[in-house]
Design a protein that fits this description.
By secondary structure, the protein is of the alpha/beta class. The protein contains six helices and eight strands; from the N terminus they run H-H-H-H-H-H-E-E-E-E-E-E-E-E. It folds into three domains: 115 residues, no CATH class; 77 residues; 85 residues, no CATH class. It is 56% helix and 12% strand. The strands form two sheets. It has a six-stranded mixed β-sheet with strand order 1-2-8-5-7-6. A two-stranded antiparallel ribbon has the order 3-4. Strand 1 and strand 2 form a beta hairpin. It is rod-shaped and about 140 Å long.
């Protein structure tokens, strides 16, 4: 640094110009530039001092040094003050810019936060009414009240995670109602299938062994000719037949049968108690039919 150099006359042949200005701070640059310009003047002064007597040389040397030092001390503070002023202005500009950026960044961050929060809150909006409508009959009033509470808390949540927690509770209630509905529907479907299977089984079975069609199939035809006879039917709901003596009377697969499972018949061509093959199975004559060649089947 310049402060460590010796600027006595015997060292003036080595000026401070050997110091690079880029290696010094701003104020140092000012000092070195000033010193370089004044040292050259001092070299000329030493040549004059060298020609005068020794005592005068000391005085002249002191005066020459003073003429260099005083302007330097005055100039450096002035340069420093100017530098400080420029630095202050630059610092103020940068500070204002940084402050504006910080405010804008904070506003953008808050806007993004609220946008995300509202998106999470809105997941609960209207969920109670929708669930109550979708699972009516499978969700009770207490559960609906809980859903209303969860929805209110979610819509007032102060963070996305809090809103998500309440939405999760709503989802749990909805899943429970959904499971209840599916279980009830599955049970109803199973019961309906069982009834349908029973009806199909009933229709697919003949009244007794030996038949080739069901009672329903025969009734749908109304009458038919088979095995040398005309076959028709009459219903116990129209003709109760209370006077008929039929042991173990009951209905099997749509036909009125006796204790042994024979279909009750009415005929004038066969005596009572005669067993006859019929389209719906074996039958036994218990009643009288006035038309010869016709046999009536007694059905429900």
């Amino acid at each position: 640094m310049i402060a460590t150099r010796d600027y006595s006359p015997k060292h003036l042949e080595r000026p401070v110009s050997s110091i690079k200005m880029s290696d010094l701070p701003d104020i140092g640059n000012v000092a070195v530039a000033y010193a370089n310009s004044t040292v050259r003047n001092m070299q000329s002064m030493t040549q004059i001092i060298a020609r005068i007597p020794k005592p005068a040389q000391v005085i002249m040397t002191f005066l020459a040094a003073a003429s260099l030092t005083v302007p330097l001390l005055v100039t450096i503070p002035a340069q420093a003050a100017e530098a400080n002023t420029m630095t202050g202005k630059a610092t103020s500009t940068v500070a204002k810019r940084i402050s504006g950026d910080v405010v804008k960044s904070a506003k953008d961050g808050m806007d993004n936060y609220m946008t995300d929060l509202n998106a999470h809150r809105n997941q609960a909006n209207g969920r109670t009414d929708a669930i109550a409508a979708a699972y009516q009959g499978y969700i009770d009033e207490a559960t609906i009240e809980e859903l209303n509470t969860y929805e209110s808390y979610a819509k007032a949540a102060s963070s996305s995670s809090e809103a998500d927690d309440w939405v999760s509770k709503i989802n749990d209630k909805e899943n429970a109602a959904k499971s209840a509905k599916e279980a009830a529907e599955q049970k109803a479907a199973t019961e309906a299938a069982a009834k349908q299977a029973a009806a199909a089984s009933s229709e697919s079975s003949t009244a007794s062994s030996g038949g080739f069609m069901t009672v329903s199939q025969f009734k749908s035809r109304g009458a038919m000719n088979w095995n040398g006879h005309r076959w028709t039917y009459y219903s116990e709901t129209v003709l109760p037949g209370t006077a008929l003596s039929i042991p173990g009377r009951h209905v099997a697969n749509g036909a009125v049968c006796d204790v042994d499972g024979y279909v009750v018949l009415a005929s004038c061509d066969y005596a009572k108690g005669t067993i006859v093959d019929t389209p719906i199975g074996k039958g036994k004559v218990y009643d009288y039919c006035p038309t010869s060649g016709t046999i009536d089947l007694y059905v429900h």
